[in-house]
């Protein structure tokens, strides 16, 4: 978009009203609920809970999109989206989680042929219920051919979910008013897992900022941590998960990698190294699917993200934290078929993480 076009659009937005393209959210609001068309029977009194977190890249697979700076694709056909969803569903069925936390799931976006991926995955796995909170929503995005977008965080479960809320995270301050209006509005998504446990089990899901240069990522991680702390202090069991766009503590001393091949500052990732200590409070207060000592002992097998189709993962950005007891040795990073099952490299630019938790 040219400077003159942007200025004209900004002026029109001011005249037309506060939110003509419906991009805004309340500070706290209810989340959207989902239910599989056919419910699958689940154990009424499970002793353990298998939890999985996965950034599915809006079922984009490894297409060279414009924001990856490897290509210029913006839109997918329905055939492409369905093929990628089939691969994701196969992986989900192999792991067979009781609880699945998703990031970058589209529900009504032009780029993914308007396929509701929350509903599609519920209908093609053994998961029964879901809640969803948009983090990028607009009737029309007037740049790069994006058009209509609705993408965000999701929680899918074999068991019912209640008390679902979308909690708004701080916006970036390093953008113009027009950029901020159409940019992502990130959130913390919470829901209560309906199980017969002595105390409530609350799921806290998020996807932190990646590109800001103003400390927004730190604010997002800290808000996610505070939500876990608040629930835990109330006596609740908590499961926190998501793509935190942050390295484990000490990672900057262990390896190097290119943050991005992009030259456009809009898509150059924030400085992962300088902020790798952000997760120290989470590791100190909660149990992790992959404990820090295990990660440092052999970090390459726990990397969950890559910047391109290079055939290997090069950093860890995806996490599960909890105050429940972790079943010894159950934490897994699902990178490739060598560890059993379907390789995740073709499915997304993130690998999923899973862990089994003992229920009280």
Explain how this protein is built.
- With 360 residues, this protein is of the alpha+beta class.
- It has one domain (30-358): Endonuclease/exonuclease/phosphatase (Deoxyribonuclease I, Chain A, 4-Layer Sandwich), CATH 3.60.10.
- The protein has 7 helices and 15 strands.
| Tertiary shape | globular
Broad structural category: alpha+beta
Strand content: 25-35%
Mean pLDDT reading: 90
* Count of discrete structural domains: 1
CATH topology: Deoxyribonuclease I, Chain A
Question: Can you give me a brief rundown of this structure?
Answer:
The protein has 360 residues and is of the alpha+beta class. It is built from seven helices and 15 strands.
Based on the model shown, name its key terms.
360 residues; 8-stranded mixed sheet; alpha+beta; 26% strand; 7 helices; 7-stranded mixed sheet; 15 strands; Deoxyribonuclease I, Chain A
């Amino acid at each position: 978009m040219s400077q003159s076009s942007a200025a004209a659009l900004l002026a029109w937005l001011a005249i037309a009203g506060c939110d003509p393209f419906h991009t805004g959210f309340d500070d706290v609001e209810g989340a959207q609920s989902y239910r599989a068309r056919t419910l699958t029977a689940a154990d009424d009194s499970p002793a353990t809970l298998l939890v999985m977190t996965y950034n599915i890249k809006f079922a984009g697979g490894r297409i060279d999109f414009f924001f990856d700076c490897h290509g210029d694709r913006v839109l997918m056909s329905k055939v492409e989206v369905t093929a990628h969803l089939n691969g994701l569903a196969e992986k989900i069925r192999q792991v067979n989680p009781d609880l699945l936390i998703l990031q970058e799931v589209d529900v009504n976006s032009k780029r993914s042929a308007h396929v509701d991926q929350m509903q599609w995955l519920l209908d093609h796995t053994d998961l029964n219920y879901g809640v969803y909170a948009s983090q990028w929503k607009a009737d029309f995005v007037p740049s790069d051919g994006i058009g209509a977008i609705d993408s965000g965080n999701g929680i899918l479960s074999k068991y019912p979910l209640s008390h679902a809320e979308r909690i708004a995270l701080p916006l970036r301050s390093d953008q113009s008013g027009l950029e901020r209006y159409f940019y992502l509005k990130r959130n913390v998504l919470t829901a209560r897992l309906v199980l017969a446990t002595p105390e409530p089990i609350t799921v806290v899901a998020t996807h932190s900022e990646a590109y800001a240069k103003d400390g927004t990522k730190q604010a997002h991680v800290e808000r996610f941590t505070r939500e876990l702390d608040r629930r835990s202090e109330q006596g609740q069991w908590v499961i926190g998960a998501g793509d935190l766009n942050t390295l484990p503590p000490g990672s900057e001393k262990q390896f190097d990698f290119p943050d991005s091949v992009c030259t456009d500052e809009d898509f150059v990732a924030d400085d992962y190294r300088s902020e790798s200590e952000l997760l120290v409070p989470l590791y100190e207060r909660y149990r992790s699917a992959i404990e820090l000592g295990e990660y440092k002992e052999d970090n390459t097998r726990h990397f969950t993200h890559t910047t391109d189709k290079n055939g290997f993962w090069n950093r860890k950005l995806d996490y599960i934290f909890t105050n429940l007891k972790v079943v010894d040795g159950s934490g897994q990073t699902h990178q490739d078929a060598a560890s059993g099952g379907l390789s995740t490299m073709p499915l997304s630019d993130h690998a999923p993480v899973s862990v089994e938790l003992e229920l009280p």
